[in-house]
Specification:
alpha/beta, Rossmann fold, 8-stranded mixed sheet, two-stranded antiparallel sheet, 10 strands, 40% helix
C-alpha cells in the first residue's frame, strides 16, 4: 500500500491527479485523498503549516532550509498548494519554498463575505508573506490565475521581490484568442460542481490527460464539488475583472516590473493560448525568451514538470542570490 501510494501524485488546481508507473490494468486501492496528499507533500520535503492572519486561516506548505533564498509558488483557479508538489521536490534541496493555499481554496478558510477580487487576493498574499516573515527578497512564481496574482504582487511590491516566474499565466492579452477572453462567462465551464465535470475539465486543461484509477478520480471530484461554492465566487470575480480591465491597463502593470522574469508555456494550452507568452515578453522589461513546451497543455507543472526544472533552476541560479 505505501509503495503504491508513494507513486500517486495528486494536484487540484484543476483538481488533477496523475499516476506514475501504474498501468491501467492495475487496480487502485481504496484511498483517503488527504492521506495521499500528505504523503505527496512529504515526498516533496514539504511540511504542512497554518497561520491566522486577520480573518484568513491560511494553510501552507513549507520546505527547504530557512536562510536560503525564498520562493513562493502561487496556484491557479480552483487549485491548491499541492499543484506544485511535483516541481517543489526539485527546489527544496536548494531553496526555502513556501506554497500557500489561496484564501477560500484548498485548506485555507475565509469568511462567507470574503472579497475574491485579484487585487484583494494580492494584498492578502502580501499580509501572509509579512506574517511568516518572507516578504523581503522574495522570488515569486505563479501558474494560470496565480500568475496574474504573482505579476500584480511584483508590480506592487518591487523593492521586496527579486524575480518572477510565470507559467501559462492569466492576464488581459491582445493576442490571446482563447475562450475566456472572448467570452469571460466560459470560465463557468471550469467549475466542478457535479459528477462528470472533472472528466470534462481534464480534457480542457491537459493535452494528454493521464490515466487515473476510478477510486482516486471519484475522491478528487467529490473534494472539488465540496469546494465549488468558493470557486464559483472566485470565477464571478474573474468575470467582473475581465470586463473592467483592458489589455492597455494590464500592460501598465506589466511594464512597471523591472525584475528578471522567466516565462514558460505549453504550446497546446486550450485555456490561454501560447501566443500570450510572446506578448508578455514584449511587456516585461527584463524577461528571458519564453520556454515553449511542445505537446503540453495548460498544466505543465503536472503534465511534464521535468521540463520546467532546469530552466527554473538556471534562472534562479542567476537571480535568486
Amino acid at each position: 500500500m505505501k509503495r503504491i501510494l508513494s507513486r500517486i501524485f495528486l494536484a487540484s488546481a484543476i483538481g488533477l491527479a496523475s499516476i506514475e508507473g501504474i498501468s491501467q490494468t492495475q487496480a487502485a486501492p481504496s484511498i483517503d485523498i488527504q492521506s495521499v496528499l500528505q504523503q505527496e507533500r512529504s515526498w516533496a520535503s514539504m511540511e504542512t503549516k497554518r497561520i491566522k492572519v486577520a480573518d484568513i486561516d491560511w494553510a501552507y506548505s513549507e520546505g527547504g532550509q530557512v536562510g536560503k533564498p525564498t520562493l513562493m509558488l502561487v496556484h491557479g483557479l480552483a487549485g491548491s498548494r499541492d499543484n506544485w508538489n511535483r516541481l517543489a521536490r526539485y527546489l527544496t534541496p536548494y531553496y526555502h519554498v513556501i506554497i500557500p493555499d489561496l484564501p477560500g481554496q484548498g485548506d485555507s478558510k475565509v469568511p462567507n463575505d470574503f472579497d475574491y477580487s485579484l487585487p484583494n487576493l494580492t494584498e492578502k498574499l502580501r499580509r501572509f508573506a509579512e506574517a511568516i516573515k518572507v516578504d523581503n527578497g522574495l522570488n515569486i512564481a505563479g501558474h494560470s490565475m496565480g500568475g496574474s496574482i504573482a505579476l500584480l504582487y511584483v508590480a506592487q511590491y518591487p523593492v521586496d521581490t527579486k524575480s518572477l516566474f510565470l507559467i501559462d499565466s492569466a492576464g488581459v492579452f491582445k493576442s490571446a484568442n482563447t475562450p475566456y477572453l472572448k467570452d469571460p462567462t466560459t470560465l463557468r465551464n471550469m467549475l466542478v460542481s457535479k459528477p462528470g465535470d472533472f472528466d470534462r475539465l481534464m480534457k480542457i486543461a491537459m493535452n494528454t490527460p493521464p490515466f487515473i484509477p476510478k477510486e482516486l478520480k471519484d475522491a478528487q471530484e467529490k473534494l472539488m464539488i465540496s469546494q465549488s461554492a468558493n470557486t464559483s465566487k472566485l470565477i464571478e470575480q474573474l468575470i467582473v475583472m475581465s470586463k473592467l480591465f483592458t489589455p492597455d491597463s494590464f500592460a501598465i502593470a506589466a511594464r512597471s516590473i523591472d525584475q528578471p522574469v522567466l516565462i514558460a508555456w505549453g504550446d497546446k494550452d486550450q485555456i490561454i493560448n501560447v501566443e500570450a507568452a510572446a506578448e508578455l515578453k514584449g511587456l516585461l522589461k527584463n524577461a528571458q525568451e519564453p520556454v515553449i513546451l511542445k505537446g503540453i497543455g495548460h498544466m505543465p507543472i503536472l503534465e511534464q514538470e521535468q521540463l520546467l526544472v532546469k530552466p527554473y533552476l538556471d534562472f534562479l541560479g542567476k537571480h535568486a542570490k
